[in-house]
Amino acid sequence: MMRFLQILFFGLIVRPLTMIVLGLNIHNKERLPLQGPAIVAANHNSHLDALTLLSLWPVAKLHQVRPVAAADYFLSNVWLAWFTQNILRIIPIDRERKDRSIDPLAQMSEALDRGQIVVIFPEGSRGAPEQLSEFKSGISRLAQRHPAVPIVPVFTHGLGKSLPKGDFLLVPFFVDVAIGQPLHWQDSVEATMQAYVDTMKELAEGLKSPTWE
Prior knowledge:
With 213 residues, this protein is an alpha/beta fold. It has helices at 2-21, 48-54, 71-74, 78-86, 106-113, 138-145, 159-162, 189-206, and strands at 24-27, 38-42, 65-70, 91-93, 117-120, 151-157, 175-179. It starts with a helix and ends in a 7-residue tail after the last helix. 38% of the residues are buried.
């Protein structure tokens, strides 16, 4: 039943929104992993980010895709929690790490073990519109546990203008999504992060989007 509702939501609402209202342009879509396990790591400017990325997959594959999202926001009330956990199928993460005994990567690691695709926003929270901020090392530490799993960098441009942080009114704006070549564990957290950062810079420059801070 939930899978059917997910297909209806993305087929009837999200797909028309991203393809028609936002005018979504996808670059190198063939690099998008259709089978897991895989880590998809993207920049984060808007609440539309996760929906836009999820719209890239065929609806029949969506049950395998698990976006990581902030528990303090997306589980803040019972209705939102039901929707995000059952339709978006988020992996909630405690950004404040109130309980240090809980492994923040555990649920992501379990999803990869089940052959799923984990979608991560390494900046942690939404930045200023169309500005990239510092990437956190969680993706590297997750890759360290799963060195054979590819990391697919994704750079989005335009979503921060369509629905920037703090706004609730959608503004039609052309959106580009550029998918990079898959990366793998580079034998250290630092080297893996550097490879990811370098690829994101290349993707941004390819879209002529000089947004690096």
